[in-house]
Structure prediction request, 244 residues.
Amino acid sequence: RVFPEASNASEAAALEIATLVRSRAAEGRTCVLGLATGSTVVNVYSAMVRMHREQGLSFANVAVFVLDEFLPMGPESLQSHVRFMNEHLFDHIDLPRDQIHIPDGNTPQDELAEYCLMFENEIAELGGIDMLILGIGRTGHIGFNEPGSGTDSRTRPITLDAMTRIDAASNFFGVENVPRRAITMGVGTILDARRIILLAFGEGKASIVARAIEGEIAPAVPATFLQQHDDVEFFLDSAAAANL
Ligand code: GLP
Prediction:
């Protein structure tokens, strides 16, 4: 879906989330959301906050799994995804804290494998992800699944691509401060979500968006694996859709 402006796409994505949250609440069921970080999704989250404040949209029946976190990363750090999600969403809505799951960037090296398995199990115990909100990196990553990530990959530690670290440099006051690794949901974890909305805005994303949608399905561009999912939509502004 191509929108005139990014703000229209963000509003539309927030509305899709709100509709699902309400319908799950009406059924007395938990709504399991998977949420990305990054500049692209900021206005989706601000629209959700506004719906909470102005329309009384409740997130009491929602569980959230955040896609990824830098490694190592403490929750109080400026760049942590914990902090990002708190500031943009969690501090402003009635989502119970014990229903929030964010990969722990402080997990010791020798506990990572077990930790990632536990994260996967928590998703499974809640019945899987109902709706996943994604951005896309210029490498074609979804979550932090960098080129080379296979379709059957699960939550795991990953080495970040050089381009991803450059893109994150301004948040870290220099590329040398950007962590070299992250924990991310796998491509397989992402594809297990029942519904996926990927947002991308601006001309800087136009070429990777075209490769993701029209390119050959291959690990070189992990976002191409979304072509194999039967309920995925890209919400784009006209600049990000320019190469389609
Ligand atoms: C980040 C995140 C992704 C995000 C992407 C795009 O590093 N791990 O989940 O979608 O890069 O970020 P942005 O929206 O800032 O362009």
Observations:
- The chain is about 30% helix and 15% strand.
- The mean pLDDT is 98.
